User: Fold these one by one.
Assistant:
Number 1:
Amino acid sequence: MRIGIISHLKHPIAEPFAGGLETHTFQLARMLRQRGHDVTLFATVRSDPDLGLEAICSETAIAEVGLSEASDIAFFREHHAYLSLMNSLRTRDFDIIQNNSLHYLPVSMADALPMPMVTTLHTPPFCWLESGVRLSDTTNHALVGVSHSIARQWAHVRGLDAVIANGIDLNKFAFRPFADADPYLVWYGRIVPEKGLHLAMDAARHVGLPLRIAGPAHDEAYFRAEIQPRLGVHARYEGHMAHADLANVIGGARAFLCSPMWDEPYGLVVAEALACGVPVAAFARGAIPEIVDSRSGVLATPGDSGSLALATLTAMQLDRRACRARAIAICDAEKMIDGYEAIYAHMIRRMRAQTVPTAREPYPVQSMDTQTPAMIRG
């Protein structure tokens, strides 16, 4: 297939990744190319050129802005990039377009394309994207959710055509049968308020083990106010690490702490920890209960650092081999690519048949084995 992938434009699709969406887009483009598909990635200029990059915009993120709304200059730069791209796609010969942008223009203009489009929803509904989805009323545009949690959150807007769980490269997160001799816990991800790192730091202190921290500090004010004062002998910030170095830090930990303050759409960090054989202690939010089961993780009461500490103590007793087995069962990127190839073929066949169904033809929803682990309450 000839596949065009529309990326979001806040950060480059390249290592070290800014977050899960960048990781997912990279993985999707790379593995589709490995399977012999002709892939073009529409992304920012500093994205990985080996992904078939066709740069459409310089980065729209402005470092000083943090989590507040971007300036009008950034907004219109992004708007213009997507508008130009969607207009140009009308004359391109792709078999299918994969939309990972989170922007309203690609979804609202899907019906203007001569080829089908698949949009993957990586976030709960927000006003701009929701308005674009509501305007998209064509059988040639499929919506995919990365979890059943996301599917439920979008149900009032539109039913999704499929759920395809995100996947990771299991080879990049090698199994470690034993933790390091000097015990420690690990937390990694974007350092922003909604990830709740400060609560994980408090929980680790309750447990009595040092916490090693990795990830980009995207919110400097939050880092200065909540994270820096907690650093010291109980917690160490390792910086923003490439996957190879990160996997080594993760694999040596006794447990991975996951402390989201919002409903995580998926949680690639959880999958990566499990792949390394590291048990998970996490707040029961969003899709996390879909990823961990009772043999690989322990859920805690959201927002309660004491509950997270108790969950950590229990998680450290779990079998690391069971954690790796869980990752192989539901987090393998090869299975994710199987799912996307299937829905692409489905959409292409339907368009080529030139039939207009009287009702939306459902695509089989991918299921996840969700043996829910016990919740620890403080």
Note: The chain has 13 helices and 14 strands.
Number 2:
Amino acid sequence: MMLDSAFVRSQFPAFQEPSLQGQAFFENAGGSYTCGAVIDRLTRFYTQRKVQPYAPYDASLLGGAEMDEARTRMSAILGVDADELSFGPSTTQNTYVLAQAFGQMMQAGEAVIVTNQDHEANTGPWRRLADRGIEIREWKIDPETGELNPEDLENLLDDKVRLVCFPHCSNVVGHINPVVEITALAHAAGAFVCVDGVSYAPHGFPDVGNLGPDIYLFSSYKTYGPHQGLMVIRRALGDLLPNQGHFFNADKLYKRFTPAGEDHAQQAACAGMADYVDALYDHHAEDAVSPTQRGRFVHDLMRAREVTLLQPLLDAVAARNSVRLIGPSDASVRAPTVALALEDAAEPVAAKLATHGIMAGGGDFYAVRALSAMGVDAENKGVLRLSFTHYTSDAEMDQLLTALDDVLS
């Protein structure tokens, strides 16, 4: 089944916004447009529910119910229990809290495996555990392809390893890592698994329950929602880790690792992401299925659309001698996040693209370790990053290719 692009774009007010007409958005990996359902919920909360939730009066009860709705519906899409999903201020902040918890639980001499493929948010906080005597082992990418080899992970695993951290896909390499396979390897060695899904979730919410990791993190502002970090922590691990929240909330799994608490309005608005999934499903299908199955169906619709749009772009840039495509050239195995190492600094090229109505970025994108490992001068040159999602149109892809022909000639 083909994704109805016109219907998709009708769900996003940005595409009807006069000030954005003629501008093609290709920095979605930094944050997506927000769907109308989220905006409507956020507006309603701020105008009708902006009181302390869960008190015994109508506005408060309604506000609390909307917050609960967001957790219940999003956890169902993700294939986990409602209390296994927490909302925090950002994925980076959530990871720091988790690292603090692991640091309290682990003993000196035990080990954590991180990668140099990650955005700094899923590697920096864990590396700081070295200050507590925790051994940090680095799972290194192939310097040519940027990919992680599971066989290299096997050589790092032993009975000292307590946690393996890696991205579902890198925000510059784009290659989709085999989460199920990697998780199975880590679990077989007795280690827990933390997956950074920030760069993957915008391309279809994953069935975390089926994938199997103990922790799965992503950011709602990159998945058509408000600025929150969503964090799945499976019960077996969540009950084991030391509580990081208020002592009187220690018996509530979804509060154990959010010491700052959630943003009430933004959490409530996250139910709009579930509204969007439901709208796409109902427009394209008729069968009555579970929320998790709806999520899988919509995930596959999004991915199929993105693969179709992505391959011509990969072919076009791979044919240029002056451009190094970071990551695989096969659209079926990567997210539509395309990083290009150029002969010159990337930011001025992004500025030139802006004169053609292309909104893109240049820099290191907090992936300094990955770029440096692949021989890219992250500090002085960086990469040009072109990222899109299922809502990108054929016309916008044509606009991008035409602009690239001009600025890269």
Note: The CA atoms of residues 353 and 406 lie 9 Å apart.
Number 3:
Amino acid sequence: MRLIIAILLPFLVFFTIGRPIAGIICLILQITLIGWLPAAIWAAYALGQYNTDRKIREALADRGR
């Protein structure tokens, strides 16, 4: 679901993953039609990094038990 949001409304993804400053910067980039594509790519990349970081944290938490 977040991937669809990353493509359609890239700035919103940054707010959902807890990066509001990046969300504001992405919104400014997205305002221009030319900047929308880089904003969507950036949002999809950031979402992938967020998911990877979350999985690593979960794996380390399970390992510590």
Note: Residues 11 and 26 are 5 Å apart (CA to CA).
Number 4:
Amino acid sequence: MKTFGTGQRVFGVALAALIAASGTVACSSSEETSGDAAGSYAIWDPYPQFDGGSDWVKLLTKCGTDAGVTVTRTGYDTTDLTNKALLAAQQGNSPDVLIVDNPVVSTLAEAGVLTTTEENKLDTSAMSANLLGAGQSGGKTYGVPIGANTLALYYNRAVLTAAGVDPASVTDWATLNAALAKVAAAGKKGITFSAIGTEEGSFQFLPWFWGSGARLTTLDSPEAVAAVSLWTDWLKKGHAPNSVINNTQTTSWQEFASGEYAFAENGTWQLGNAKKLGFEYGIIAIPATAGGPAPAPTGGEFVTIPAQKQAGRYATSQKLVACLTSDDNLLATDTTLSYIAPTPEAQAKQVAANPELKVWVEAVGAAKGRTGDDLGTKYPKISEQLWKAVQAALSGSKTPQAAMTEAQSAAAAATK
């Protein structure tokens, strides 16, 4: 199962277990209200799987009680939530607290839906700066992350052992390519990933793109072309299957689960499925070309405070958000969501409870938001050209250089 912040939302095994324990899955029966009553505060979230008896809704209620107010909660599907939030803002009927997928923050901010942390007094000092970047636009911050997930490389220990590869030796592109060559020589398959022509494909390509040193504002740089060439060379050499062109992260995972592949690029949301593989696996960070973890994109949500007619409500909204994002509450929530916490303190507690998460904490530490670098709403337009270029190069219809030159031209025109 996956959550990668593209508008799709499927929770991990831990979350499914929580839902099963809480009984029938249903949207909150709370009526849709912006919380106009002085003692009633509305919270909208993208977790419709949680019903009123779930730990999540109990936490919302407790935070309200601690703040001396009643919380009225409504859960929406992610895409529906964005549309509802925009409509509510137009009608002057926004909820007091809005939890949204991180790439949506810049869209809502540019539409004037959200208050800045300077206005609402949210404390962001404990949050990891790279995760906070996904909620920043035009030099202003519009919320705090509730958690994050990202990508890494899962590996099949038996396949690597048979090929004489120590996974710890894979630290950069050169050593990864050497490992794939050894795996191929041993008669096994190399690496699988998702390169589908959607945001999902861009999401999986970005660690290699950013890991090359490329920037989304210059898609035709030598570094960017090198990243595309890395993937196309894998297909030419048979180190990756042609199926990656149409693979989603789910079908890519199914290929890895066959036991024939040495590596699979996938996310934290597969940890529950990894335990069911039937073979010994491990996880390493996606390497940058020159070594060290590559910056991978972050998925996960931000807790924001929409603009209200009555600015006096912000003080209580701030208390609600502070409660939801306190270290203790983050630890419980992020464990349930298979997320990595957004604060170093909570991350340390996660690793202490589950050492397997150490590599994910390191990956999240190197990660960055897709709308960061002040791209905001320009990102989706750039991403579309990126995945089209990758598709063209992998299919062989264009060289990596030609594909990225065309992509840069189209992206520049689309983001004027």
Note: The chain is about 45% helix and 10% strand.
